[in-house]
Amino acid sequence: MVTTPQPTKVIYPDCDGNPMSDNTRQFRWIVVIKENLEILFDEDPNVFVAGDLLWYPIEGNNKLRQAPDVMVAVGRPKGDRGSYKQWEEGNIPPQVVFEILSPGNRLKEMAKKQQFYDRYGVEEYYVFDPDRLDFNGWIRTQAGSLEVIEQPENWTSPRLGIRFELQEEQFTIYRPDGERFLTPTELAKQAEQQRQEAEQQRQRAESAEARLRELEARLRELEGDRHPEG
Questions:
Q1: Region Disordered: what ranges (predicted)?
Q2: pLDDT for 32 beyond 60
Q3: Total Cβ atoms within 10 A of residue 227
Q4: Among positive and negative, which fits the CA dihedral 154, 30, 178, 185?
Q5: Residue 6, CB half-sphere, CA atoms under 13 Å: how many?
């Protein structure tokens, strides 16, 4: 009896064995960009944001993969994933990816990443070097390939609506409403300030209501004095 060999199941690992970051500055920027994008698109159920998540573009090939420091997939639902398998995601590639450089990154490595993102459908690709304060970007043109952005130091992402500003001593990212991206510490302080302001407003409202009740009670007393029974 001849048996037909069963196809070998392809395993797609969730980890490539590489660290997420090499130093605190790089890690801080990854977190800032990822978390602020999560907040920006919090109310849109079909924008998926991830950090250091392996992306497999082709089914059956578990060697072909990249793990962008931050990626955004518009048109894909939020939710936890071990990896981004494109064929399970409506064949939608991440449209926007970010890479934050560390001193350990090499030119050859970054060139391979750019080729990968170009080949598999990324629309916007941004690279920031926090040590050298250097920011660059590429955008997919009508010709079909990623082309360098000539003036990235004051550039607004067509997909995300966020604006990048690079000055001599500072790199800043702004939300569409003009507010800048904040660090987790700044976000926590902002939330605490908003909580305190809300509490103060509540206390003022309660105090005003108490004064109003006192005034109404006093008016009733005066009415009673003017119109005694009998």
A1: 188-209
A2: yes
A3: 7
A4: negative
A5: 3
